[in-house]
């Protein structure tokens, strides 16, 4: 019984041999440069071999666990030499706090769940308004050079302003704490979307726009067929940066405006000298911000 020798192409590498119902004899010699011999052993053993994706995931998980352990060790060391609560005391408080996160005793005494939801609602309103205004404005600024030159100095002047500086302007305009906090989120999170969208439009290949001009395409068709698909990665980058800024701004704004919200909750716990709850709030703020960013990354991967 002759062994099946795979066909080997010098340019394309080894090509699988035609299927045969006759198994190769045991101990047959391996053809140099041909198809590597099939692994020996049962199928379940071969399937459990090294998997690059599983190895990468395991490596990342181990690195993340090491980072968290280092953080807890540094935290414990700092707590042992200061009045800062340690990880064990904070964990006990967290278990007690999250046993009933949605209690409501009074307007200023509510569970951490209600405070996080109130902050997320403000972020959604301010960030949504910034997206509705900032992304179209970025397309216009990036499409027309004169408007870009006119808006550039204004954006450079206003973009570094702290959110705390915008808050009095919001109180003056709206005479209420709730819309003032939303205004601060809007004005601080709009700049990354404008800048990244305009940058994406300006990086569209000039040949595409020349072809559109030759074909006499309308401005709406140019936007829909050329500008939007080409600049979409830049737009999503601006959106991702803006949602992080919005979540940062709301904590500072709520500390000053009061009411219900994670920022006000942190300040209220400081007034009660409940430092364990402040540390818990820091982890909650970080976790929510991480979830918002990962949600946008997942959305960006699913878009064409």
From TrEMBL:
It holds the Pfam family BPD_transp_1. It is found in: Cell inner membrane; Cell membrane. Residues 116-300 form the ABC transmembrane type-1 domain. It is a multi-pass membrane protein. One of its GO terms (biological process) is monoatomic ion transport. Residues 19-33 have a biased composition (Low complexity). GO terms for cellular component: plasma membrane. Keywords: Cell inner membrane, Cell membrane, Ion transport, Membrane, Transmembrane, Transmembrane helix, Transport. The keyword Hydrolase does not apply. The chain crosses the membrane at residues 61-80, 123-142, 245-266, 278-300. InterPro entries: MetI-like, MetI-like_sf, NtrB. SUPFAM superfamilies: MetI-like. It comes from the Bacteria. One of its GO terms (molecular function) is nitrate transmembrane transporter activity. Residues 19-42 are annotated as: Disordered. The keyword Ligase does not apply. Belongs to the binding-protein-dependent transport system permease family. This is Nitrate ABC transporter, permease protein. The lineage of its organism: Bacteria, Pseudomonadati, Pseudomonadota, Gammaproteobacteria, Immundisolibacterales.
């Amino acid at each position: 019984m002759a062994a099946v020798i795979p066909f080997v192409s010098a340019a394309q590498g080894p090509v699988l041999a035609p299927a045969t119902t006759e198994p190769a004899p045991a101990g047959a010699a391996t053809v140099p440069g041909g198809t590597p011999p099939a692994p020996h052993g049962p199928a379940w053993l071969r399937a459990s071999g090294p998997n690059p994706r599983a190895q990468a995931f395991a490596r990342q998980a181990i690195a993340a666990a090491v980072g968290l352990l280092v953080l807890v060790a540094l935290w414990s060391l700092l707590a042992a030499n200061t009045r800062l609560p340690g990880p064990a005391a904070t964990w006990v408080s967290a278990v007690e706090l999250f046993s009933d996160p949605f209690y409501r005793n009074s307007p200023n005494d509510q569970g951490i769940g209600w405070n996080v939801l109130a902050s997320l609602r403000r972020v959604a309103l301010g960030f949504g308004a910034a997206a509705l205004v900032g992304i179209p404005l970025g397309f216009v600024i990036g499409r027309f050079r004169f408007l870009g030159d006119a808006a550039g100095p204004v954006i450079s002047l206003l973009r570094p302003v702290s959110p705390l500086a915008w808050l009095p302007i919001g109180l003056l305009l709206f005479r209420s704490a709730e819309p003032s906090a939303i205004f601060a989120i809007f004005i601080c999170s709009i700049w990354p979307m404008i800048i990244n969208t305009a940058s994406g439009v300006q990086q569209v290949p000039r040949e595409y726009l020349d072809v559109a001009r030759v074909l006499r395409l309308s401005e709406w068709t140019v936007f829909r067929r050329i500008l939007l698909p080409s600049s979409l990665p830049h737009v999503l980058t601006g959106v991702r940066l803006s949602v992080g800024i919005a979540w940062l701004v709301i904590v500072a704004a709520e500390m000053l405006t009061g009411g219900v919200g994670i920022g006000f909750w942190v300040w209220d716990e400081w007034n009660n000298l409940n430092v364990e709850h402040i540390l818990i709030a820091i982890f909650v703020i970080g976790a929510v911000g991480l979830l918002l960013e990962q949600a946008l990354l997942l959305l960006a991967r699913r878009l064409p």
